Amino acid sequence: MNHRIGIMVFSLFTFFAFSSYDGYAGFQDLLDSAKKILGSEEGLTENEIINGLKEALEVGTSNAIGIVSKLDGYYKNPKIKIPLPENVQKVEKILRATGFGQNVDDFELSMNRAAERAAPEAKSIFWDAIKQMKFEDARKILNGRDNEATLYFKDKTSDRLREIFKPITHQAMSEVGVTRTYQTIDDKVKTIPFADQLSFDLDQYVTDKGLDGLFFMLAAEEKKIRENPAARVTDLLKKVFGSK
Q: N or C: which end of the chain has fewer CB within 10 A?
């Protein structure tokens, strides 16, 4: 890998992998540098640009998936926590008043646990989308909106993710007790006068909410990195990689 592609990879790695460091120069400086490299007389070839961006996005998606798939990655993150379904929320107070509070809590927790267990399956699907990336896609991401990379992944992976996630989510929900706890709550709701029935596609609900959370985190990380400084991060990267 030549010097310019090395700069590109480190810069794009920074784009996704280091979102929590403060006090650096703005991401716009990093983006301007990338554009300067791309536009120089001895600019990178199309293959070099694509390969550099692919490597960076592989690192970035792995990082994002690692965040949501760890224990409490969903459950203790209020921005992506899967809430009780609306029809359960309507009778939540009654359920808690009649001694079913623990069942409600267990149900909410187990839905989030199922999403955390299913999330790692997204990595191979994201990486397939990265492999299919074209030069125009790479240019658009580099020069696009705060969530351009996230939009790319949404467009290329949403259908496949839902197809893969739903059976995995179903299996995970069985293993962590979602289905059993839901049935207990449903049986109780049927005894409450005028309460709506809970019948709905629970697998689809958890799948959709889980994917919403995953894409939310991708977009949030991407936007944060675009707005955060990069100079010291580059120094940090040199230090980290220099130790290997």
A: C
Q: Which residue ranges make up each domain of the chain?
A: 3-242
- DSSP labels for 25-85? --HHHHHHHHHHHHHSTTPPPHHHHHHHHHHHHHHHHHHHHHHHHSTTTTTT-TTTPPPPP
- Other beta carbons within 10 angstroms of residue 145's beta carbon come to 14
How many whole angstroms separate alpha carbon 168 and alpha carbon 32? Answer: 42
In tens, the pLDDT along 204-244 reads: 999 999 999 999 998 877 776 666 544 223 343 233 223 33
